[in-house]
Description:
Layout: H1 2-11, H2 13-16, H3 47-56, H4 71-78
Amino acid sequence: MIYxxxxxxxxxxxxxxxxxxxxxxKEVKEVEVVEKKVKEKKEHMTKKQKSKLQDRMVDGELPRxxxxxxxxxxxxxxxxxxxxxxxxx
Length: 89
């Protein structure tokens, strides 16, 4: 049904648009959109955290791997066991 309506409109386009007035095209002004800068929230640190971070700094930068977890220390705290239930030595 929709197909036949579309085909009818295509065939009789001139008759259907005969009574319509032509619209004048208005010039569209280009409007500049100003993006609002989003303030980044700074991480609030305590004095202790700041001093600890400053102690780790080398030439103003943190050394490579400063936030890595020591595997051996971590596993000794967690307490590992193999699948049989006996501790790993």
